[in-house]
Amino acid sequence: MDLGLAGKRALVLASSRGLGLGIARALADEGAHVLLCGRSGDKLKANAEAINAAGKGKADWVEADLADAHFVDAMLKAVHEKLGGIDILVNNTGGPTPGMAEEMDAEKLYNFFQSMVVRVITLTNALLPLMKTQGFGRVLTVASSGVFEPIPNLALSNTLRGALVGWSKTLSAEVASYGVTSNMILPGRIHTDRIDELDGANAKRQGKPIEEIRAASVKSIPAGRLGKVEEFAAAAAFLCSVPASYVTGTMLRVDGGASKSI
C-alpha cells in the first residue's frame, strides 16, 4: 500500500529515542521529511544523520524541552525554518514519573500538566491553521493503554493522558471538514527504554527481581511477548497516511491484545 507520505512534512515530538523515534523513522521510510525534537542534541543529530543516510525520506532536528515555557514558540520557528510548513503533527511526550495517586502533589501535577497537556494543545492549535488552509493535516497523539484501564503505579500518566482523550475527540469533529484528522494511538507493552525503567521501578516497589516482573507482564499479554517499536510505528504511520483520511476521532490500541475492555 502506498501511504502517500512522500514529501509530507512531519513534526514528531520527543523523538530522540523510543516510540517517537520509531514513528519518525517509519514516516521517513515512506518518504516524509521529518523534524525530530527532544532534549538530547547529540542523539537527535545522530538519528537525523542515520535517517538521511538511509536515503528514503529526509530528517532535520531541533533541541527543545517540553518543560520549557518557550517550547511552542521554538517549535513554530523550527517548523517554518526547517520544514517550510506542516502536514503531520505527532504529539508524543514520553511519560511522567511512576507513583501512586496519593503521592501526586500539586506542584508535580501542575508541572507535568503543562508539559504533557497544555503545550500539546497549544502547539496543535498553532499549527492547525496551516493544515486547514491546505486541506490536509494529521494530528496523532501518543497516549497509553492506561486511558482504558488505569495502570498501577502510573497515576500521573493515567490522569494526564486521560485529559487528552476528550480533547482529541472534540478536535476531530471540529476539523474533519477541512481534511484534517485527529486520532490517538495507545501503546501497550512495547519494548523501549521506558518499559525497562518502569519494570525496574515496579521491581523496586514490590521487592522482586526485574526478571520476575517482566515475566509476569508478558504472561498477561495474549500475544505472549512484548511489542516491537517497528510494529507500533507502522500503525502510527498508517494513521498519518493519505489512505487513512476517513479515520478520525479514534483511539487505536497496539497492545498485543492485553487490554480486556471492548
UniProtKB/TrEMBL annotation:
SUPFAM superfamilies in the record: NAD(P)-binding Rossmann-fold domains
One of the Pfam families matching this protein, by short name: adh_short_C2
InterPro entries registered for this protein in UniProt: NAD(P)-bd_dom_sf, SDR, SDR_fam
GO molecular function: 3-oxoacyl-[acyl-carrier-protein] reductase (NADPH) activity
EC numbers for this chain: 1.1.1.100
Segments passing through the bilayer: none
Key words of the record: Oxidoreductase
Top-level taxonomic group: Bacteria
Top enzyme category: oxidoreductase
Similarity comment: family membership: Belongs to the short-chain dehydrogenases/reductases (SDR) family.
Designated name of the protein: 3-oxoacyl-[acyl-carrier protein] reductase
Species per Swiss-Prot/TrEMBL record: Pseudorhizobium flavum
